[in-house]
């Protein structure tokens, strides 16, 4: 399944942005060069997640398992371009499954382990998966039984492969070589179909080619300063850009060691950093901030091998980024990405000042601004007005981020055919739905403002709810607060503050407005309604789920 149009492939290949190597080619090269090097390491608490004891495989041992698993896939009649769904925790078998599938030209579609029959049935039918790989039990839930019950309702799903019950066959290298010669894999063909949430009821399928992923690996590897042979710790599930682009691809490209972790457990995470001599990992901002406040704990850890850490998904504190760099000598890379290929990374080479790095992202792909990162010349970016579509050139004016170039996917799976409408315009720009503004010295940076769908537009004025959230956080009677827009026939939207009060405290709307007015906030940003709630809905990384708040408020509008 070739994803990009041929003229784009020709241009990007001529520029040297895309090549002919597949992901399997990279792995094979590593296995030939350093067969005895440690390739992949299970979570040390594997037995708490799935069956079996933790395993540590060299490149030669991993290659053998890949050949055996690929032989088993051929035995089941799976062929090039078939979609193979995968619902596994971060274990050695997950790495084996991905690489075996790519060796045969199969398309991997990762499924979160939290998904149950409701989500799985819809997505498996939509993507037309021919097989799904899972474990008997993942953290106590019987995934094999769940999928066995679901399978009769999915006529295209021919095979349920349970890793801890289906024995691997003997490897058949000759058979695989003959198959590969008859079915060569092109680096521009789909390697994955990942899933990203949106406004539609069904998650959006995002196909990405081998070249798409390798470019993401270049971006993350450059920002993190990853060197050949480095040990990389992957603490996020291997299902999307954060893990595949952020850690798995840099591992493939560096030929080092990949240490697996899942689900996130701080004690296990720190132990792995020390015991495995980790050079690079990623972590949520809240974890990095919390660790800095545990000075005695940090002083007890040997972090001498840790060269850098990636973080993102929420705003980074300038104090946090500065302290890690200046006190502990560990730079934090600020990462803003998406499955579709959004790839803004503020690394220490591009943005040496740690406080700037916490707040800003380089304006990659904008004429007149040069950066050390290779990715900077491989993409184009611009901001456009949310209402008029006019290109924004001045600082401080919020606009939607648009990108095109080597990182950007070719379009959603089955767009317009029961799938979502594409977010790529006629000029090839991907409309991210993310709002930034031009900022910083000489207008060299972008500053993240808000998701476009979360921006409140009141009487033609764009209001960032994050800004008001931050101000309300200082109210002495509030434990938590967030604002959302509610429909209004006159103004389009009005602001509603949803608050969690501290024990034995009460507030009213006028008090909230007075508090914000005392901070010299523009009057159009003041809430015109408020609701109390026991706790704000948040995702696992702590981000407020404004969609859930809007749904809660809908009956009251």
Structure description:
With 557 residues, this protein is of the alpha/beta class. It has a domain at 455-556: ANL, C-terminal domain (GMP Synthetase, Chain A, domain 3), CATH 3.30.300. 31% of the residues lie in helices and 23% in strands. The chain contains 17 helices and 25 strands. The chain has an eight-stranded mixed sheet with strand order 2-1-10-9-11-12-13-14. A six-stranded antiparallel sheet has the order 15-20-19-18-16-17. β13 and β14 form a beta hairpin. α2 packs across α3, α2 packs across α4 and α3 (59-75) crosses α4. The protein is globular, with a radius of gyration of 24 Å. The mean pLDDT is 92.
Q: Would you tell me the structural class of the helices and strands?
A: alpha/beta
Radius of gyration: 24 Å
Q: Shape, please?
A: globular
What strand order characterises the main sheet?
Answer: 2-1-10-9-11-12-13-14
Give the N-terminus to C-terminus distance in angstroms: 46 Å
> How many distinct helices?
17
| Major sheet attributes | 8 strands, mixed
User: Could you state the CATH homologous superfamily of the domain at 455-556?
Assistant: ANL, C-terminal domain
Please give the share of residues in helix. Answer: 25-40%
């Amino acid at each position: 399944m070739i994803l990009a149009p041929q003229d784009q492939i020709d241009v990007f290949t001529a520029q040297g942005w895309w090549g002919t190597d597949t992901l399997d080619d990279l792995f094979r090269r590593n296995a030939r060069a350093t067969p005895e090097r440690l390739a992949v390491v299970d979570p040390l608490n594997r037995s708490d997640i799935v069956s079996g004891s933790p395993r540590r495989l060299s490149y030669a041992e991993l290659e053998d398992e890949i050949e055996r698993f690929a032989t088993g896939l051929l035995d089941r009649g799976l062929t090039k371009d078939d979609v193979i769904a995968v619902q596994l925790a971060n274990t050695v078998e997950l790495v084996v499954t991905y690489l075996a599938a790519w060796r045969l030209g199969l398309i991997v579609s990762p499924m979160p382990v939290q998904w149950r029959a409701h989500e799985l049935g819809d997505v498996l039918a939509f993507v037309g998966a021919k097989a799904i790989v899972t474990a008997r039990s993942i953290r106590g839930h019987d995934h094999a039984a769940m999928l066995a019950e679901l399978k009769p309702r999915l006529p295209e799903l021919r095979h349920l492969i349970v890793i801890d019950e289906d024995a691997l066959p003997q490897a058949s290298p000759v058979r695989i070589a003959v198959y590969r010669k008859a079915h060569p894999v092109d680096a521009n063909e789909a390697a994955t179909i990942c899933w990203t949430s949106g406004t539609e009821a069904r998650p959006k399928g995002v196909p990405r080619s081998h070249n798409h992923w390798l470019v993401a690996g270049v971006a993350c590897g450059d920002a993190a300063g990853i060197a050949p042979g480095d040990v990389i710790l992957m603490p996020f599930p291997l299902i999307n850009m954060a893990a595949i682009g952020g850690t798995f691809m840099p591992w493939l490209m560096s030929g080092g060691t990949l240490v697996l972790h899942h689900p996130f457990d701080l004690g296990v995470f720190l132990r792995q950093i020390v015991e495995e001599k980790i050079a690079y990992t990623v972590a949520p901002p809240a974890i990095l901030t919390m660790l800095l406040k545990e000075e005695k704990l940090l002083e007890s850890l040997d972090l001498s091998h840790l060269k850098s850490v990636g973080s993102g998904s929420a705003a980074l504190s300038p104090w946090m980024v500065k302290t890690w760099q200046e006190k502990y000598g560990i730079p934090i890379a600020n990462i803003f990405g998406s499955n579709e290929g959004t790839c803004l990374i503020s690394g220490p080479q591009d943005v040496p000042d740690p406080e700037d790095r916490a707040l800003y992202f380089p304006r990659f792909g904008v004429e007149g601004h040069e950066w050390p990162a290779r990715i900077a010349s491989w993409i184009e970016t611009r901001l456009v007005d949310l209402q008029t579509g006019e290109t924004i050139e001045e600082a401080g004016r919020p606009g939607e981020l648009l990108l095109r170039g080597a990182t950007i996917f070719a379009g959603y799976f089955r767009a317009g055919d029961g799938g979502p409408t594409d977010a790529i315009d006629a000029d090839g720009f991907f409309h991210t739905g993310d709002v930034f503004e031009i900022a910083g010295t000489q207008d060299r940076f972008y500053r993240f403002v808000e998701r476009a769908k979360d921006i409140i537009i009141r009487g033609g004025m764009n209001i960032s709810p994050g800004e008001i959230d931050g101000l309300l956080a200082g109210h002495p009677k509030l434990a938590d607060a967030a604002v959302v827009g509610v429909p209004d026939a006159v103004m389009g939207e009005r602001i509603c503050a949803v608050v969690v009060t501290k024990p034995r405290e009460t507030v009213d709307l006028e008090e909230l407005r007075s508090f914000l007015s005392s901070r010299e906030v523009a009057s159009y940003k003041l809430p015109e309604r408020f609701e109390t709630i026991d706790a704000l809905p948040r995702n696992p990384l702590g981000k407020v789920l404004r969609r859930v708040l809007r749904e809660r408020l809908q009956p009251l509008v």
